Amino acid sequence: MDYQQLTDDLHIKFKDEIDKGKVATYIPELKKVNPNKFGINLYTVSCESYGAGDFQDKFSIQSISKVLALTYALKLVGNKLWKRVDVEPSGDPFNSLVQLEFEKGIPRNPLINSGALVVSDILISKLKNPKTEFLAFVRKLANNKQINYNKDVVASEKAYGYKNAAHVNLMKSFKNIKNNVDEVLDFYYHMCSIEMSCEELSRTYLLFANGGKLTYNDERIISRGRTKRINAIMQLCGLYDEAGEFSFRVGLPGKSGVGGGIVAIHPGKYCISVWSPKLNKKGNSFKGFQVLELFTTRTESSIF
Ligand code: GLN
Questions:
Q1: How far is the CA of 287 from the centre of ligand 1 (A)?
Q2: What average pLDDT does the segment 229-240 reach?
């Protein structure tokens, strides 16, 4: 398979196609993005990289970072984490509050906002300098010291984050948040503000295609078993109330963010990232979804 040819073809095919999506506006800072940006990058576990379009431009990875926070928290507290967060698909939007009260402050899974806020709370409890240490962890996975938080995005989310504040307060009332509410929100917004290019994203998430080991030095970060579980959670929960559709049409574990990125993993083979900022009604990249669908069709490489 000529992957370079394929990523180029997909880029050409979708570049000028009508995009029915809309850039996220509820975080004002995200509105500033050029809506026509479009990049694709494929990284194989043997460390070959194939990119097309704006694959080296940085963007806000947003919720895609929730997988990294989960990975770090699992390393620190192990299976105890599952007492505070469940592993079921929510079938609801990423920021929905409805289930949380019925289910007594236990989030459905770690990849919706409430779940990632509990994971943030765990990291704050365990780390001395949570923001610095989390960033160092991400940089290690990325093998790149140029990965950073975007302070403007943090400030923008903080100023309009009424719903996230509601989540933390509700969970605090059920005693599923141990730390100060503002501290939890501050960490969570920093985590979401991380910027990466498609190429950096694929490189970082290659860990989950490589059985939990870094490809660049063979260091084990998480066990095979835990890697399997994280991929399973991405498969069932990574695209929120569109996770079923993503499994149906793409057939890979994946994670999206409102910055317009989607990363997908083929265990044992590759990691692919797409960035196109216009989102469909479920908050997932409109074009990104289509590109990934055609990619797994052309390569016949879904996990199913
Ligand atoms: N920071 C965003 C929020 O909390 C993340 C949402 C997302 O990417 N789906 O709303």
A1: 19
A2: 97
